[in-house]
Amino acid sequence: MSKFRKDDGKELPPISTASLPDIVFMLLFFFMVSTTMREVTLKVKMRIPEATELSKLEKKSLVSYIYIGEPLPTYQKTFGKAPRIQLNDQFATVDEVQDFVIAEREARDEAEQPFMVTSLKIDENTRMSIVGDVKQELRKSAALNINYSSRKKAER
């Protein structure tokens, strides 16, 4: 038989924290790489209409978005309930659409300019009169590649 010896005098060694900064920085880099920042804060209600035939855009970096819809309740006291145009983070009028498109075009590389797409994100309850006015301004600024954003129709 073997003898069992009781080690009352020994304590557990402390946990090494030498690798803790490495773990923290790995987590930090992971979240920095995997997180996407929202580019535009929506100020209009946005319920995009459903469609059956959709195609996905190849290069989203070449897309400029124009949002059209009823202002959110926090902005309705100032701007009313009529549908408004939002360019980037600000409300705009139809006359400012042409300047917006020109500024977006100048911000791109010259080789990418012919491939630019203007995507209209329009609330499904918005009347077509304001959309027609925006399309006329896009024609004046030679932004002829227009896309209507929609969501896929749910299968029932």
Automatic annotation (TrEMBL):
Residues that span the membrane, as ranges: 20-37
Protein origin, superkingdom: Bacteria
GO biological process, one term: protein transport
One annotated GO molecular function: transmembrane transporter activity
InterPro entries: ExbD
GO cellular component, one term: plasma membrane
Subcellular location: Cell membrane
Membrane topology: Single-pass membrane protein; Single-pass type II membrane protein
Main location: membrane
UniProt cross-references to Pfam families, sorted A to Z: ExbD (PF02472)
Key words, A-Z: Cell membrane, Membrane, Protein transport, Transmembrane, Transmembrane helix, Transport
Protein family: Belongs to the ExbD/TolR family.
Protein name according to UniProt: Biopolymer transporter ExbD
Organism, scientific name: Draconibacterium sediminis
